[in-house]
């Protein structure tokens, strides 16, 4: 389906005073879900997606492993484990889950409950850092396993499917928009930790992807399609020159860790070959409170992944994802979380927001490209030295890419406004309330959490309940989605006029899998599995 959603040149010119027509599938996508690019191009695009997955795959272990008592060697192992299971989870999701070109990687939503486990009093008695790391890892694994089982149950019994059925285009707008906007703290704030390489990185990627195609006319899109590789290579070389020139030698340690290319400690610590295997640190241990906190994080992950699914379907030039397909995807997210827990990846799973944004930049929404990127994840997780080379890219360079790709996902959410009546005061109230509260409520809980950490809060006792509340209400996507969903369902939704204002008259045909024949083209399971596992 090349040139998905393209227009017809034989149509008469549209009246310039008329609004832009509504598009069920996004036009301008060169390769949609089922139309792969040529193999050489697909491999390069897959490698781009792999580079982008390194952000969270390195950031989360770098944040948590040192607090657990782990050294660089153990951090390298955790990163390799996370990349390995991310590759497997991406393959499973693209084959048996939503079938969308979605990369499944580690989720930032699990950081708070994970840190709570790390700071638990029962691990403070271990004076040996290695023993403390092992015991803490076992506790994290147990909580992740319980949370993943809860996530799978939500998908299997249809609980998440029935929740998603209540969504309308109006309530999807804040869900998808804040899936991207809600990660703003990982954009410019992380870039600014080394502004001398982060800011040039942002300028270079914008120039190469947006301005250079107009200056250099080529038969095939090159600069915009491979902007990630070009910009990362240029700024990484620039960062290496700064490191070699000794300009950081007398800078504070925190600056050196962010700016230097030789501070990650991964290249020297990673093994040449390492095969991840389950429970290598021992049998998991279980704690009820910690499991509840992880379950809250898994719910947040479902909200954010659902927003990413909708954005990915848009940038793959597919129809909106039916609720049954999203539920199927949530089951495989749970399976992925189970693998994360078994392999010791210290975080759960989530559909990657940044990789969904990369689909928009390249205008390639091919499933094959994502499957190739999964192959790169698995390969570089096994051959540690090669993977460590790319994992040592300074995070401010990756943050510069986030500034672009998170914005793309946010704009995908705003695109659903075309199906809503923006002249309705009900629409304005729901949008305004969900957007404002989606910003304001998480900000309050973020400040509260910072105060808790500064006061050296004791995480025993009822600390897990605080974590449950903080994890849910610190998520911009979750809060905005809940506010929009509740208001949309309770404010005269049974009225035909308000249903039309919310876009439900258009949305209903996508609420059931069998209502639109195009769903089989995009979301049907392979190997005739649809007959064994029919979608509702």
TrEMBL record:
<feature type="transmembrane region" description="Helical">
    <location>
        <begin position="226"/>
        <end position="248"/>
    </location>
</feature>
<feature type="transmembrane region" description="Helical">
    <location>
        <begin position="465"/>
        <end position="487"/>
    </location>
</feature>
<feature type="transmembrane region" description="Helical">
    <location>
        <begin position="166"/>
        <end position="187"/>
    </location>
</feature>
<keyword id="KW-0812">Transmembrane</keyword>
<feature type="transmembrane region" description="Helical">
    <location>
        <begin position="369"/>
        <end position="391"/>
    </location>
</feature>
<feature type="transmembrane region" description="Helical">
    <location>
        <begin position="47"/>
        <end position="66"/>
    </location>
</feature>
<feature type="transmembrane region" description="Helical">
    <location>
        <begin position="102"/>
        <end position="120"/>
    </location>
</feature>
<keyword id="KW-0472">Membrane</keyword>
<feature type="transmembrane region" description="Helical">
    <location>
        <begin position="194"/>
        <end position="214"/>
    </location>
</feature>
<dbReference type="InterPro" id="IPR006043">
    <property type="entry name" value="NCS2"/>
</dbReference>
<dbReference type="Pfam" id="PF00860">
    <property type="entry name" value="Xan_ur_permease"/>
</dbReference>
<protein>
    <submittedName>
        <fullName>Nucleobase-ascorbate transporter 10 isoform X1</fullName>
    </submittedName>
</protein>
<feature type="transmembrane region" description="Helical">
    <location>
        <begin position="78"/>
        <end position="96"/>
    </location>
</feature>
<feature type="transmembrane region" description="Helical">
    <location>
        <begin position="397"/>
        <end position="417"/>
    </location>
</feature>
<dbReference type="GO" id="GO:0016020">
    <property type="term" value="C:membrane"/>
</dbReference>
<comment type="similarity">
    <text>Belongs to the nucleobase:cation symporter-2 (NCS2) (TC 2.A.40) family.</text>
</comment>
<feature type="transmembrane region" description="Helical">
    <location>
        <begin position="429"/>
        <end position="445"/>
    </location>
</feature>
<keyword id="KW-1133">Transmembrane helix</keyword>
<dbReference type="GO" id="GO:0022857">
    <property type="term" value="F:transmembrane transporter activity"/>
</dbReference>
<feature type="transmembrane region" description="Helical">
    <location>
        <begin position="140"/>
        <end position="160"/>
    </location>
</feature>
<feature type="region of interest" description="Disordered">
    <location>
        <begin position="1"/>
        <end position="20"/>
    </location>
</feature>
């Amino acid at each position: 389906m090349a040139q998905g959603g393209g227009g017809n040149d034989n149509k008469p010119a549209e009246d310039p005073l008329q609004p832009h027509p509504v598009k069920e599938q996004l036009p301008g996508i060169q390769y949609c879900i089922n139309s792969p690019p040529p193999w050489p191009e697909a491999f390069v695009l897959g490698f781009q997606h792999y580079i982008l997955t390194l952000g969270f795959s390195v950031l989360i272990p770098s944040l948590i492993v040192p607090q657990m008592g782990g050294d660089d060697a153990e951090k390298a192992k955790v990163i390799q484990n996370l990349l390995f299971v991310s590759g497997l989870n991406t393959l499973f999701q693209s084959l048996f889950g939503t079938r969308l070109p979605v990369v499944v990687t580690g989720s930032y939503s699990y950081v708070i409950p994970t840190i709570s486990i790390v700071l638990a009093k029962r691990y403070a008695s271990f004076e040996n850092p290695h023993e403390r790391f092992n015991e803490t890892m076992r506790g994290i694994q147990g909580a992740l396993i319980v949370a993943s089982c809860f996530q799978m149950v939500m998908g299997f019994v249809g609980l998440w499917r029935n929740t998603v059925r209540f969504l309308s285009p109006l309530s999807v707008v804040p869900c998808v928009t804040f899936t991207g906007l809600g990660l703003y703290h990982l954009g410019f704030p992380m870039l600014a930790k080394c502004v001398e390489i982060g800011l040039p990185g942002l300028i270079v990627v914008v120039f190469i992807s947006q301005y250079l195609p107009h200056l250099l006319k080529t038969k095939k899109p090159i600069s915009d399609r491979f902007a990630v590789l070009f910009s990362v290579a240029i700024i990484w070389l620039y960062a290496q020159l700064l490191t070699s020139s000794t300009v950081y030698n007398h800078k504070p340690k925190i600056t050196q860790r962010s700016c230097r290319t030789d501070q990650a400690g991964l290249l020297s610590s990673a093994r040449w070959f390492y095969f991840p295997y389950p429970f290598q640190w021992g049998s998991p241990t279980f704690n009820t409170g910690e499991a509840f906190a992880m379950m809250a994080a898994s719910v947040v992950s479902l909200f954010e992944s659902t927003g990413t699914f909708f954005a990915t379907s848009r940038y793959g030039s597919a129809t909106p994802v039916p609720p049954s397909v999203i539920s199927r995807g949530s089951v495989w997210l749970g399976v992925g979380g189970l693998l994360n827990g078994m392999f010791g990846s210290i975080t759960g799973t989530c559909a990657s927001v940044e990789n969904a944004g990369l689909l928009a930049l390249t205008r390639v929404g091919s499933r094959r490209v994502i499957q190739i990127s999964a192959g790169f994840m698995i390969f570089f997780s096994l051959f540690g030295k090669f993977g460590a080379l790319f994992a040592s890219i300074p995070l401010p360079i990756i943050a510069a890419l986030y500034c672009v790709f998170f914005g793309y996902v946010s704009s995908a959410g705003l695109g659903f406004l075309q199906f809503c009546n923006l002249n309705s005061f009900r629409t304005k109230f729901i949008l305004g309330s969900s957007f404002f509260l989606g910003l304001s409520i998480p900000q309050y809980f973020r400040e509260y959490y910072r105060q808790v950490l500064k006061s050296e809060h004791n995480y025993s006792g009822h600390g897990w309940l605080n974590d449950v509340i903080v994890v849910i209400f610190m998520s911009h996507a979750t809060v905005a989605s809940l506010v929009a969903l509740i208001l949309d369902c309770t404010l005269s939704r049974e009225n035909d006029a308000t249903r039309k204002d919310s876009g439900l008259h258009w949305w209903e045909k996508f609420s059931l899998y069998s209502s639109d024949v195009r769903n089989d083209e995009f979301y049907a399971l392979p190997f005739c599995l649809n007959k064994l596992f029919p979608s509702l």
